[in-house]
Amino acid sequence: MLEKINEIKHQIEQDIVNIKNSNDLENFRVKYLSRKGIISELYDLIKSIPQDDRPSVGKAINELKIYCQQVFDNKKQEIENLSNIITEQIDLTLPGRRRWVGSLHPLTKTLKEIKFIFQKMGFDIADGPEIEEDYYNFEALNFPPEHPARDMQDTFFISDKILLRTHTSPVQIRVMERTTPPVRVIIPGRVYRNEAISARSYCLFHQVEGLYVDEGVTFSELKGTLVAFAKQFFGSNLKYRFRPSFFPFTEPSAEMDITCFLCNGKGCRVCKQTGWLEILGCGMVDPNVYKYVNYDAEKYTGYAFGMGIERITMLRYGIDDIRLLFDNDIRFLKQF
Ligand code: DAH
Description:
Helix content: 40-55%
Mean pLDDT: 91
Bound molecules: 3,4-dihydroxyphenylalanine
């Protein structure tokens, strides 16, 4: 009897692999698992064997039945899955769907590149708080109280003495307070100005500040560094000029222009017909600033510069509305 059970098991193993569709499956079920099926017949045969053998044979039949049910269920599942695929009409030869890979925000790209270029030139990266004291944002940068230069900045005041920083320059002071020269840092960060939101201005934007203080730092080093930066960032055949300017914390001060790359200096809408684009402000650190950080103005000289990341990004990619950089519209962002 046990031999017979074994034979049936082999038979099941062979039959199951030949099942190709639900018809075959049904035939298999009728053959083995139905009330008139082979396994039921086996149970009927128990009566005809000696009493002592019955428990072991019964057990073997039970096991066979469980086994048979199991392979049947598995096969059934397999066939159902297959038929789902067919009814959904999935074409298995089609290539898989591409996963959508995100892209870096254009501001992040600009910032990364600026950092990379200055780091190669030996600048460290520093940062400071966005909620700032009046002292760092203005006073220690040589804007005395009531100085008219404060009017240049539309400030969000939190209280009398606390404000949202209007530029990254206060971090110059914070860095100098805690470092003895040489100091060579760039300071990327967010700044805030209480301006009406338009295509050209936003209440929040980003700047990168630069500061280098040591013995014998000269204005020509400042120019050399900025020109090296601009050529790497905008292209090596770029033309540039420095114009005299004014900032309370630098003396002398300048602004750097590059030739408009849209019109190549001929004059267009973007450069307002001048052929030039202003990209940053800079100058030699005013000796008055050193008093606030206890640097010996006789011993040390230094330069500083500051540029707007939005502006540079917009110039570079030909973006004509600053708000696009803050809307986070995926249709815009995925172009970068
Ligand atoms: N802080 C200035 C601004 O927000 C930019 C600037 C100009 C920074 C000259 C500097 C500098 O470090 O030397 O307009």
